[in-house]
Structures are given as C-alpha cells and as structure tokens.
Write a structure and sequence with these properties.
Layout (H helix, E strand, L loop, with lengths): L15 E4 L9 E3 L7 H7 L8 E8 L5 E11 L6 E7 L8 H15 L2 E8 L4 E14 L3 E12 L6 E6 L6 H9 L3 E5 L3 H8 L1 H24 L4 H11 L8 H20 L10 H15 L9 H10 L4 H13 L6 H5 L1
Parallel strand pairs: 1-2
Antiparallel strand pairs: 1-6, 3-4, 4-5, 6-7, 7-8, 8-9, 9-10
Length: about 350
C-alpha cells in the first residue's frame, strides 16, 4: 500500500486518479489530456462509487458477546470485490457522507471558481478519501512566479475525524501529500458527520469567501517580498538568523553550518526554479524552502532521501515547517505605516 493508497491485492488496481501531471507513485488512473477529471472519472477511476456506507442498527459486541452501549460499526461495500467490510466504529449521531454526495459540493464550488477536479483517491483501506479541485486563480507572485492552489476535501470514513476542506498549495496524490496539505494550508473549513453538519455543507461557499479574502492578503505579502531586493549578504544574515544551534562553537556545528550556507547560497544565486525571482526576498524564501524539501541532510539509515524529506514536511510538528515559518518571517516585508508611506 504505497503512501497509504488503497490497492486491490488480487488485481493490483489502485484507488487513485490524477489529471495533467502524473503522481510520483505512478499508480492508478492518469489523465494526460483533456483538462481535469470529470465527476464520473473521480467516482469510477478512483473506485469511489457505490460504497453504500452505513452504520449498523445494533451496537458492536465485545469478545464475550455483550453489546457495547453507544458504539456502532461502520461498514461499506468494497469497491473491488463488492463484499461488505468494516471501516470503523462510531456513535449514534455520526452519519457518513457517501462519496457521491461529495461531488455536488465540489461541483458547486467548481462552478463558483471555474476550477477542475485534479486528483482523487482512497487511503488506508477506505478509511479516508481525498478529492482535490484545482483553482484557476493560482497566485502569480511578482508577476512571474506561479503558485497553484487547490481546494482539497478530506473525508474520514472511520469516524476518527470530521470532514475538512482546505484551501492549499499542496497537490494531494497520496497519504503523505494529504498530510502535507493538512500541515500547510491557507485556511480550513470543518464539516461534522451529523445532520446539523449537513447544513454546514450548504453554507460552505460563504465560509470560503472568507478563505479567498485571506488568500488575497497573503498574496499581497508575497508580492511585497517579490518586489524587495535581497543581496547575497542579506540572504546569509537571514539564514544565520533562521538556523541557530546550542553548540554552534563546536567544530562539527561549524562544519555543518558552512556546508548548509554554501548549499543555500548556491540555490539563492543559481537555482533554475528561482530564476524569475532571483535577487529578491521572495527568491530568498523560496531558496530556503527548496533546500528543506530537496537538499537538506537525511540520516544515512534512511536510504530513500526524498521520501524521508516528504514525511518530515508532512508532519505538523516537524522542525522543517518551523524553519519555513521562520524563513517567511525573516524575509517578509512589513507594510509601510500610513505616516511613513505619506513621506
């Protein structure tokens, strides 16, 4: 089950579908031409149709056969075999969202934003489902540096969490990237698996109106960073502020610091991905994030360095995400005060 994706062990079919750009794992259905995924492709190609999610009427029983009050089994029909199987245990008021119910919600949002379905899939044997919608209003920082945005819906079918809808720049194609989206989003809407929660689904557009207003404020911050020059000496001072060490006087710490600075300066001055924004504070911030995501050291006991870095980024408590936040704070450009702006 690479990266948590649900796979039929008999046939090897994978419950995931992506459009435009292949997923790193190369599993499931890939739509290279014709734009994004249609609603039917989301349901059929990602094997999300006809799960018939349901909660048992009778409580679950313990090993002695005694009913456990307030605990009810959640079941579905397996999309590959059609056989009934358990997904989890819920309380009496918990109500599942059928996968078919999720598509009208995102379709409605797609009508508002003119986006397209980008990815969809089932994780951990059906215990979680993700569907993403690519937004056409992706940010263009400094007029040159594109940043895609996605509406990402994550529904937990095993009653371990609420359904969440994220406005994020992370493209979800597996469990790792879903976790990365949960740790890196512009804003988030929560929908509970109850009858009252279903009313919240109908109010989601209003909630996302706040989301998009927040995005505009963030984009303004990024634009200021893209317009602000940053010399190599400024960049070095910035990264020394971001990385501090309790044993910085030790020989090993000094060696590690020197190598890190050389790698970061190389990215700041020479990285192809930084070409359009080179020499700016936005370029400085992106050099740090590129280093953390693709070049930072990985223990020799971890043979797959890229996967290790992805998992570090996916963890909400990761030091990597703290460093990214510190980098944004270090290189951001505060808005001018009214008095100074008028001078």
């Amino acid at each position: 089950m690479p990266a948590g994706i649900e796979i039929d062990e008999t046939t090897g079919r994978a419950a995931v579908a992506v459009a435009r750009t292949p997923a790193w794992h190369r599993l499931g259905f890939f739509k290279a031409k014709g734009g994004g995924l249609t609603a039917d492709e989301v349901l059929d190609k990602a094997y999300l149709r006809n799960w018939h999610l349901r909660v048992d009427e009778e409580p679950v029983r313990n090993n002695a056969g005694i009913p456990i009050p307030g605990k009810f089994a959640i079941n579905r029909d397996n999309p590959f075999t059609g056989e009934e199987e358990p997904l989890g245990v819920s309380g009496k008021v918990w109500r599942p969202f059928q996968n078919e119910e999720l598509l009208p919600l995102l379709d409605d949002l797609r009508g508002q934003t003119n986006g397209e379905f980008e990815t969809a899939g089932s994780l951990y044997g059906g215990r979680a489902v993700f569907i993403t919608c690519r937004l056409p209003e992706g940010m263009l920082i400094g007029g040159v540096d594109p940043m895609d945005r996605y509406l990402t819906l994550i529904d937990y079918k095993d009653a371990t969490s609420a359904l969440v809808l994220l406005d994020t720049w992370v493209r979800s194609v597996c469990a790792n990237t879903v976790n990365a989206a949960l740790a890196n989003y512009l804003s988030k809407v929560t929908i509970w698996h109850t009858e009252s929660g279903r009313q919240s689904v109908m109010q989601i557009r209003e909630a996302l109106g706040i989301t998009f207003a927040f995005d505009e404020a963030l984009e303004i911050e990024m634009e200021r960073m893209a317009a602000a020059p940053c010399r190599e000496s400024d960049f070095v001072r910035g990264i020394r502020k971001i990385w501090t060490s309790a044993d910085e006087d030790s020989k090993r710490a000094q060696t590690n610091q020197k190598k890190r600075e050389l790698d970061l300066v190389s990215l700041f001055l020479e990285s192809d991905t930084n070409k359009a924004i080179r020499g700016t504070k936005w370029g400085a911030y992106n050099a740090v994030t590129e280093y953390l995501d693709w070049s930072s050291p990985v223990p020799s006991t971890h043979p797959d360095a890229d996967a290790t870095r992805a998992l570090r980024t996916a963890s909400p408590d990761s030091k990597v995400n703290e460093l990214k936040a510190d980098a944004f704070a270090t290189f951001r450009v505060p808005a001018l005060s009214g008095k100074r702006a008028a001078s």
